[in-house]
Amino acid sequence: MSKNKIDITKEVMSKIERGQLKMRPKWMFVVGSVALVLGVIGTYVLSVFLVSLISFSLRTHGLMGAIRYQQLLDNFPLWAVGLAIVGTVTGIVLLKRFEFSYKNNFVLIVLVFIVAVLISGWLADYLGFDKVWVKQGQMRRLYQQYDGRGKVLPWRSGDDIYNFRRGNGQGRGSVYTK
Amino acid sequence: MDTLTNLTDEKVVELVRKDNKEYYAELMERYQIKLLRYAGNILRDEHNAADVVQNAFIKAYVNLNGFNVNKKFSSWIYRIVHNEAMNEVLKNRKQIPIGEDVEFDSGVDIEEDFIKKEMMENTHSCLNKMPGIYREPLVLYYLEEKNYTEISDILRLPVGTVGTRINRAKILMKSICQKIK
Question: In whole numbers, what is the pLDDT of chain B averaged over residues?
Fold first, then answer.
């Protein structure tokens, strides 16, 4: 053994005995794990919603023209994308640092997550959840911005009357039924 | 302490958590030399290796409640040392060649055999010439006597990749050692 090797055991134990080192309480890890799971679920739901929304927009308008593209860019909730990236990265960093999940292939997990989001988003669109969201709930306004039927009249939500076309300089438009 | 030595690492961890802080010394005694050797192989500097191992033991103690006792403590602590050593490598950015006077206790009687010592020196100089991605699995497999699953846990690589890297490392090692001769 090297002569000048520091006696690590003594050094660390003296810090523990003097109270300089303290174990993090178990509840911190429990809360951390729960928060992480909730974060992943939240990110997943949000991502599914975004994929569904994009798919819905494409289906109702065909491939995006310049105007729709601009509208999409203007209204796209970029904060949600940021949240998804930050949440996922934070989750992976925390998992790598504290969890004993060494056998997990994180690249594979991220890929599976993205594929699951795309499939779920497509399924939500295919099974018609978007039709529910377009008529009710908190997502109604956002969806109606993408459905090509103009702005929403708040007092007419849920009706079959959607459109609010602007007239000639009057700021008013004709209302028509489907 | 006699019965303590017979306990598994994971049982000792449980005891430490139950306010038997002094038992943490047992865990450190079990791993100190092995981890110093492992960190030394990554960093090629004894003092840095000692710092890294000390920090790893401190981090392990602070986060001991986050350790899952159903898993292997040895892989966990090796992983922490690996992370710390990698941080140190990134911090320094320069590889410090191992000094001639630097040696890590292998647990084997040093007086034994001059040829063996020379072989060890040759092996170390070959190892030092290898890229880290091949050196580390090789060190873990042959020097630390870890199996593929444990290495995959420590390095967070799929078991297949570990096998491939060890095989490539052996070929690389052979060619490097032949060139040195």
Answer: 82
Tell me whether 0.85 is exceeded by the ipTM: no
Judging contacts by C-beta atoms under 8 Å, the chain B residues touching residue A24 are: 62-63, 65-66
| Contact (CB<8Å) B46/A5 | yes
Neighbours of A121 (CB within 10 A): 22
Q: How many CA atoms lie within 13 A of A13 on its CB side?
A: 16
* Residue A3 clears pLDDT 70, i.e. is over it: no
Query: Nearest CB to A29: which of B61, B66, B76?
Result: B66
Per-residue model confidence as pLDDT tens digits over A98-137 = 554 444 566 677 778 778 777 877 777 777 666 665 565 5
Q: Do A8 and B17 lie within an 8 Å CB cutoff?
A: no
**Contact criterion met (CB below 8 Å) for B53 and A21:** no
Q: Give, as one character, the DSSP assignment of residue B22.
A: G
Q: Please compute the mean of the pLDDT values over residues B77-100 and round it to a whole number.
A: 74
The Cα–Cα gap between B99 and B77 comes to 26
String of b and e for A2-21 (b: at least 16 CB within 10 Å)?
beebeebbeebbebbeeeeb
Cβ-defined contact of B61 to A25 (cutoff 8 Å): no
Closest residue by Cα to residue A24 from B158, B143, B17, B173: B17
Tokens representing residue B121 in the block: 């020196």
Please determine, for residue A80, whether its predicted confidence score (pLDDT) is greater than 90. Answer: no
